[in-house]
Amino acid sequence: MRPLPRSWFAESALELAPKLLGKIVKKGSATGVIVETEAYGTDPASHAYRITPRSRAMRDTYGRWYVYFTYGMHWCANVTCDKDGIGAVLIRAVEPIGGIALMKRRRGTSIVKNLCSGPAKFCEAFGVTGNDNGAAVAGAFAIYDAPDIPREDIGVSSRIGITSATELPWRFYIRGNPFVSR
DNA sequence: TACTGGATTCACT
DNA sequence: GTGAATCCAGTAA
Asked: Which residues have a Cβ under 8 Å from the Cβ of A84 and sit 6 or more positions away?
């Protein structure tokens, strides 16, 4: 199993989000297959739309973790990308394949389906916090290569862009996978 | 300095 | 289906 090199994350969020499906994410003994992602670029819905201290990680680099705290109790983890622009891909759901006992303990549940079937659940199960913000996607917390998911097996949700009023691809997921959220 | 609202989750009805 | 929990970043003053 080969960790994805930094150059792999140089593409835009919209190209990268579907390509991340099926890849292996690993932090310590916690291991899982990415089954759902969400693309964020320069749309006003993205934190990167405004230049702030928090969003600098997203604008200045790629191939790093962008971890932020939301709703007073949840962490969400993104991979920064787009060498020439601004982008990040939110990891929305993961299928647990290793370190499941540890995840169960962290999540306080024995139901495997509830371990990582949401962005904040994934962070809790993998022990991701603000300490990981800005860290390179490599080493202890990395994404490993795996065969691409066939295009026909990838589902796409779209939404209306705030500025453009056109439909934008948004959420990508592996069709039929039980660990996809919602 | 104070206020507002959020890339969510879970319990409860 | 609905609402509470909870705190930080961003914005306005």
From this structure: none
Q: What is the pLDDT of residues A149-176, one digit of tens each?
A: 999 999 998 765 555 555 565 899 999 9
Protein-proximal positions, strand C, CB < 7 A: 5-11
Protein residue closest via CA to C1' of C10: A52
Q: What is the pLDDT of residues A137-146, one digit of tens each?
A: 999 999 999 9
Which nucleotide in the DNA or RNA is closest to residue A69, CA to C1'? C8
pTM (2 decimals)?
0.94
Pick the CATH number of A6-174 from 3.40.190.10, 3.10.300.10, 1.20.1560.10, 3.40.50.300: 3.10.300.10
